[in-house]
Write the structure tokens for this entry.
Amino acid sequence: MKNSRSKPVGQSKPTPACFACQWRDRSQWCALEPEEVSELSEKKSNHFYTPGQVVFNQGDTFSGIFCVSEGTVSLRRTDSRGNTILVRLCHAGDTIGYRDFFAETEFSVTAQAVSPTTLCFFPAKDFQALLNASPALGMEVTRRLAQDAGQAEEALLRSSTLPVRVRMAHLLLALKERYGQGLDDGTLRLVLPLSRQDIADLLGTRPETVARVIHSLEIDGVTRFSGRNVLIPDLDLLLDEVDPEE
Amino acid sequence: MKNSRSKPVGQSKPTPACFACQWRDRSQWCALEPEEVSELSEKKSNHFYTPGQVVFNQGDTFSGIFCVSEGTVSLRRTDSRGNTILVRLCHAGDTIGYRDFFAETEFSVTAQAVSPTTLCFFPAKDFQALLNASPALGMEVTRRLAQDAGQAEEALLRSSTLPVRVRMAHLLLALKERYGQGLDDGTLRLVLPLSRQDIADLLGTRPETVARVIHSLEIDGVTRFSGRNVLIPDLDLLLDEVDPEE
DNA sequence: CGGGGGTTTGAGTCCGTTCAAAATACGTGG
DNA sequence: CCACGTATTTTGAACGGACTCAAACCCCCG
């Protein structure tokens, strides 16, 4: 699994400038001054990945950080027994790898494109330089790190106390933010970027159980699945799954 | 549960100087220059807590960070349904609360003394000032934050894939670092700082299950429990629980 | 039209939970 | 120091959610 490429895999692409990136003000780069943004732009490279393609593997030596420019990337963690969980989904605007940068470890997860994806790669040493130059960036990154840690704890709490069905409801509510769209008649529609196996990994369960839970949600009229399309006729029903009215 | 005391509860104590603290070089404060350490010393206050006493509650407004000077503190997180997990145990040298400082939230956990405990309290604004003055401190804190986040993910992976017995073995191995002592005949002895209920919370299970798991470990000769005393005749047996030889 | 992957369904099992009761440890006041 | 009441821990029996293994199904693509 060791790998010390200094350049990412994935097909290279022409490089649009960072200042034109529509996601910049949502990312940690919002802390940068204009001239620092062009510094960023110069040092990064763009790369394209097809669904399923691996960006880097858990255990690879750390090379730099990645920004999602387009698409979705999954972060998976595997233990010595081969158990695996899907730690997180990263969407346009998210940055991958700064945790490992600071922890000074190899990559602690495997990153894999879920949909056709474009990433910006920023080498570790250039990131370090930028960090030295901009305390504001450091602060911003630290803030995000702190939030991530908090979210990881929440996930732990959920997964160790809530049944799969409720966790599924949580997941749908989270995905709705990114992949949902309201329909005319008030029903909500979302197109999942995930396979059932992915969902199972994310919920800490098996595909069979996911299928059964979906079935049970259908029976109760909370959702209507067909493949990766989900219809949610009444959002309140889904919210009740998460927080049953007392 | 709201609470906006600016001073911690817990009986005040005379204040030993930070430069004399034997834990300083293990903590993030190792990044500070001598004159900054005395700054630290001036601004902090000491407080004593009896077992079970709450240092702060989840949801209290953030007031500052705490260093464990002596004893053990548990960090618990509770969800809206009243489920609770023990997120972490903090020992002498550990710092509590910097995650919430950066995430700019209220306290995200409840901190409670597990044994008789002395804490140093450092108000948020003074920490901020110190942080502004010392980039090295910022870097060090960020590093620890990144490591914490990684550990939270590992915990998640373990708790969602490994059976309680293996998680128990993990816990014992972790506690041995702090609470273990080798005996003449090579057996290892540890005195747990935890009740069965605490262990259950930490493993994400129930006290009854903990009792049964302990029983099963006894039967297999891996451990010998009597109350909070544990004897481990052969460490290898415990290691095999975690990583069964292939 | 015939694979082949992912998905669903089914049946049986196991681990951990729940509820309840018994046993043990613990602290307090006599 | 002992007796008592309370809290914690252990044990037991029954239940249940999720897992495993296996087969059927479906859909997409060649």
User: Anything to note?
Assistant: The radius of gyration of chain A is 19 Å. The interface with chain B takes residues 77, 79-81, 83, 85, 87, 98-105, 108-109, 135, 138-139, 141-143, 145-150, 152-162, 204, 243 of chain A (CB under 8 Å).
